[in-house]
Amino acid sequence: MTKRAKSNQSLGKGPMASQVLASARQLLRRKGVDLTEWRNAKIRAEDVDQTVLSQAELSTYDPVHGIYIYGQNQLSVLIEQLTELPMLEPLTEAYVEAQDEYMPSGPPISPLTPSYFTSWGFFDLHAGAHQETFGTVVLELCKFLKVDPGLIHIFEVMQQSRMGIYLHEGMAGPHIVFRELITHQKIRAHSASGYLGRPGEIWFARILPAPFHDERFDYAVVFTTPYIAGELKDKQTYSRTTEAEWMAYFERNLDQTGFEDQALAYAWLMKYGRSRHYWNEYVFLEYMNHQPDAIFLAGFPDRPSSLPHSKEGEERFGF
What separation in angstroms does the CA of 304 have from each of 36, 241, 309, 311, 315? Predict the structure, then answer.
């Protein structure tokens, strides 16, 4: 099957999801999961204040950020239970192995933050010809259980999300204005970490769109702790990378995806990388520094000598 064919399957039900539907009810009942309570969870624009943000643990968050945290929490409940199903072993084993390898907890232990790693593990990590993820499997289960359509919509948005490379173009009130490279999409977003940055910065981030057609929630949210892209000239000289340098990176790499269409090639590369751990390795090997609300990287994924913690980079920079 070609990559182009796979890209058109969207959220179609694959063999793992089919097997899960045949086994899930029995497993979840045996483990004492209250399906009725879970299925009755709701999230709708008209009553989001009552159904979501009234919860004590979410009341201090920005509303759009709180909506997506609520959605991810609901997803986690089912995913945690479903990992015991044998048909999901390809995903479960890959997720556990990645946890052991990268120890995602944020600096100083690991530059992979929980928000980054969990999103990758739920929505991008895939297995099989149908590119099934934990997210696509749970979506099929939710439809089978007739879960609230608003909640399913949030799950679908999160599943369709991916990391991207964004240029910071300034502020619009409390929100940052981004322009995504390649797609040229303009996005006005809340930075969940609180980091506002400055114009000209290149961000590697997962930005989730406005969740509803509602003027109260008409902006996106930078869901992951932002990674700010930079470059080492020598051991002492660190500078931010430019749009031109990243466009040169894409010129070197988009053809390797197998897509002729540039937008499809970019979407594929940013969601799946050129290998399973392509973007995990980028973060891990390019870490330079951090502050509580942002992490700073150096180098380009396809140039090992530019990465501070690669073998070639350590030899070049003397780390």
Answer: 51, 16, 9, 8, 11
- Rounded average pLDDT over 248-271: 97
Q: What is the mean pLDDT of residues 152-176?
A: 97
Q: What angle do CA 157, 158, 163 make, to 5 degrees?
A: 110
- What pLDDT shows up at residue 145? 81
Compute the distance between CA of residue 137 and CA of residue 139 in angstroms, rounded to an integer: 5
Contact 268, 260 (CB under 8 A): no
pLDDT digits (tens, 9 = 90+) for 282-296: 999 999 999 999 999
Neighbours of 48 (CB within 10 A): 23
pLDDT in tens, 119-142: 999 999 999 888 999 999 999 988
Q: Quote the pTM value.
A: 0.89
Are 296 and 241 a contacting pair, CB within 8 Å? Answer: no
